[in-house]
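thought: fold this chain, then report.
action: predict
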Amino acid sequence: MGDLKVISSDNYLNIFSKKREAEITKTLNNNALSDDHPYIRSDRNTLKETNVSKGIFQILKKSYNFIYAKNPVTEKRQLWFVPAFFENFLGYCMYSSYVNDQGGISFNSNRQNLINKIGTNLSKHTSRKLDYQFTVIRSSHLNAWALPWGKIAIFEGLVKGIEKTEINGFKDLTKEDKIAAVLSHEIVHADARHTARRLEKIFVINILLVALRVYLFAKVVIGIKESKNDRFNKLEAYQEIDFIANYLLNLCVKLYLLATSRKQELEADRYGMYLMKKAGYNPKAALWLQHFFISRQLESPRWAVKINEIFSSHPSSKARLDANLKTLNEIESRS
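observation:
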């Protein structure tokens, strides 16, 4: 008989554990879930759905930020669907005709150079880098204006008034500060898209008005199931009501747009003063400018001023002076 091999208990346990491990591995491999198993498939679908949801969310987010974007100056969200190239087109097309219709370019090269210097310095600190252009118009009017995309003009009469007028309490201001008060206000109009904002509001209002008129016509006229005479009578009544409603709606729209314009004027004053400070000019000049306009206005009762302001595109100089004083205190408190 051959020699018997004696297997110790420890070796036996090792051999048994290795066999058992091999059996378990084989069992797991045989029972592994296939790619088509509902558990695996549902996980993969969930992942795909998550990716799709994220993609849709990003598209909606980008659309929201595009249509209801933040204003570059005020940082408040606003409807924004007039593109930049259209602003540029409007400014380019309108600028030359506006300048020529109101007197043409001034022959005083020194004034023109000064305006260009101050305007260029201010425009370096704006939120949007527009194609700024500054022109002195040969006119005695005390006025200035801004068109889209940085097309800005100041009237020669206003520049002369600034050069000649001294007001008590403002001896520390230079001529450059006072001109900067005018130009910074106009620059903010362009930088904050004020003209584009008015166009956007008018567009939305017109759509709503057309939709309202179509709805009323359909409800009153088309939906009538009566005789021809009754329908004719109701059609006449609708036309009379439509005339009155149209007049009242147009009045409300005009008052709303005027209120919006006044708000934009105060906005241009406020952020214009901050722009002056940033560019190295004294924002106190914005107060001087309103005192300058007040000194050239006739005295009127307060109630008359309030009524006139409701139908005006600009707030009263007194209201602007009060608002500018608050802004100046705010700027000084932050310095």
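thought: worth noting. The two ends are 109 Å apart (CA to CA).
final: tokens above.
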